[in-house]
# Entry
Amino acid sequence: MKKIFTITTSFLLSVFMLAGCGSENSIEQAAEQSVQQFEAAGVQDMGNDALFIAEAASLAMLQIQLSESAAEKAVSPEVKELAQRMKEEHQQQLTELQNLAEQSMFVLPQELGTAHQEILESVNEQTGISYDLTYIKEVDSLHEQALNRYGDMAENGVSMDVKMYASKQLPLLRQHLEMTDTISDKIESTI
# Structure
């Protein structure tokens, strides 16, 4: 009886420790759950696709939250206008990801990944024109990184659905990058 209690206690402690570690990064946790579902269905090599979908969902949530913050905290009318557009278009991206996940075995994170949470907090610490510059620079950097990742997945994704989703988003990401570059230059020239 004592042995069963010890084994059960050890098992429960392991589960709680793993759950605690796994929740540190919702992106990795969602990707891992996706891979497990694919493997259970006999589908292999979905790790990169699953990670991409989880990253894209977290990024879309970050862009929405940053945009909501900018609508309140930004000083520049151009930044407020950009934030409204970003919110709408990234909400559409998130909706498309949710539809993709429903049609396949992808699991989406329900909260921001660790790095994305840190970016949100870092931007929200700023005020005034410093907020506007920090917001624009982060959004610009995020779109630049996203363009590279989406471009790679459009070519190298395993799932045709993932490849099509990534390809479809590339023009919008390029457009967002051009807008953030323009607004960033305009704000920096007025300082």
Summary: The chain is about 85% helix and 0% strand. Residues 1-23 have pLDDT under 50 and may be disordered. The CA atoms of residues 2 and 8 lie 10 Å apart. The domain at 2-190 is CATH 1.20.1260.10 (Ferritin).
